[in-house]
Amino acid sequence: MAKKFKNKTLAWLDYRLPIFSVLKEALVDHPTPRNLNYWWNFGSLAGITLIIMIVSGLMLSMHYVAHVDLAFDSVEHIMRDVNYGWLIRYIHSVGASMFFLIVYIHISRGLYYGSYKSPREVLWWLGIIIFLLMIASAFLGYTLPWGQMSFWGATVITNLFSAIPLVGDSIVTWLWGGFSVDNPTLNRFYSLHFLIPFVIVGIVFLHIVALHKFGSNNPTGIDITLKEESIPFHPYYTIKDLFGLGVFFIIFGIFVFFLPNSLGHPDNYIPADPLVTPEHIVPEWYFLPFYAILRAIPFKLLGVLAMLGSILILFALPWLDTCKVRSCRFRPIYKQFYWIFIVNFFILGWVGSKVPEGHYLIISRICTGYYFIHFLIILPLLGFFEKTLPVPANIFKEHNKKK
Amino acid sequence: MINKNKISNLKKERRSFLKLTTFSVAAIGSSFAVWPFIDSMNPSADVLAQGIKEFDLSNIEEGSSKTVKWRGKPVFIKHRTKNEIEEARNVKLSELKDPQKDEDRVLKPEWLIVVGVCSHLGCIPSGQKVSDAKGDFNGWFCPCHGSHYDSSGRVRKGPAPRNLEVPKYKFIDTNKIKLG
What we know:
Number of helices of chain B: 3
Structural class of chain A: mainly alpha
Radius of gyration of chain B: 27 Å
Strand content of chain A: under 5%
Number of domains of chain B: 2
Structural class of chain B: alpha+beta
Largest sheet of chain A: 2 strands, antiparallel
Number of domains of chain A: 2
Shape of chain A: globular
Number of strands of chain B: 9
Number of strands of chain A: 2
Distance between the termini of chain A: 44 Å
CATH architecture of the largest domain in chain A: Up-down Bundle
Largest sheet of chain B: 3 strands, antiparallel
Oligomer: heterodimer
Largest interface: A-B, 24 and 16 residues
CATH class of the largest domain in chain A: Mainly Alpha
CATH topology of the largest domain in chain A: Cytochrome Bc1 Complex, Chain C
Mean pLDDT of chain A: 94
CATH architecture of the largest domain in chain B: 3-layer Sandwich
CATH superfamily of the largest domain in chain B: Rieske [2Fe-2S] iron-sulphur domain
Strand order of the largest sheet of chain A: 1-2
Strand order of the largest sheet of chain B: 1-9-8
Number of helices of chain A: 15
């Protein structure tokens, strides 16, 4: 083995425990396509946000009490009495929104540039698993302040499982540890909310291992064949990621300091009351599109399946998309359908925030239908009918062509 | 790896300047960001509020003492007799392990107020009740490792390094004190 470190102690230690060379490979030397644009910032941003969530959550857990009689007050105690408690809680609650925002952009990037295609299917799967775990963790965490939205959100979401034929009700009772959402439910939700982020860290590690196996995809979507097409991760992408991080912190800071409650619901500042349901229950913004799909379908079981299916279908995406060309840059038709899909997703989010009646219901049904048509009909057929543009042999050719 | 070819052509000074400024900004920024997280583990406002407490002394008779809880610790309030005061004041400072005049340890000679935590390893010395062991110096005796305190709460014998601590307090009335 060639000597990797000048420092003798480091070299000695690394020879026996090669974490330093692994880290150096991953964060310093790792050859990365030289043409990555700013949409490639969101992976590292998501990782940093995950760490911010874990640290701020850890500090909150030192003051929070998971008991139905004390939970709400302990959150107010954090807000009023604990030094900088307000800041840490707002970092955590706004951070959840930021985390989803970043991950949605990260997923959209993957969809646009075909990052899910062979040989990166497992990388894509691991990403979806992280997304599912994030959804679970966000839902569990939202229950903890034990406000009205916490309580009724928990009630509604756990009741989804009652749609399962035969054993549904037993499963719901098991989830609750009782006959309604109550203290046992709060306790286990807290326990799981603490656990899941660390599971996410584990999957993120695998996500990075899978990523480094074939390296990052790039805006052209072509495989990197020449040495000159790559540049070392450090300093080129460390500095680019750092710049993006600075911009992100400004946005994060604006929300934390000036608009901390703008992304939440005022109803959650009313202590949970098991005898009164708020008039209009809506999840946090990041769940709205899926909530719209759930409500679009008038049959309980089918609605739940459609909502689950809308995420699980992503697992099959590498095979539903039959086109061999990865990037949208060379797929003029798919590019248009991609944007229609994004707009459709936004509309789903918008109707998800409305009462499912009249034209809102009709819109949500059309959009839900289109969501699945996109994956199940448009994508498989496009691979056969779309005339893709000529793909360059390497990223320099693409660059020269533009000039 | 194409680590070297282009990087080495750049002016080294410019790069090291950029490195220095980037790292400084990052270091200063993160130390500011870390402080709220550390400070959140310090006593919160409600804990600090409990740190100031008032106690009424009127029902403590001469010669007896009372233990009150303050900041989670026992505080000994001793209504000393003339004898005990004299005893404490007649000790030569050179005999003491942690030399301190009795006059410096009380606001009013008849009231001795000390935190009842042994300066050795944190046990609570006995001597508050009439029936308790008071040690060889008519004060307190720590059962854990055998430290003896006198009627001014000063250590006289045993492993304890310092006298019993006198908390910050003041008389807000003839018979009322405010601790903290």
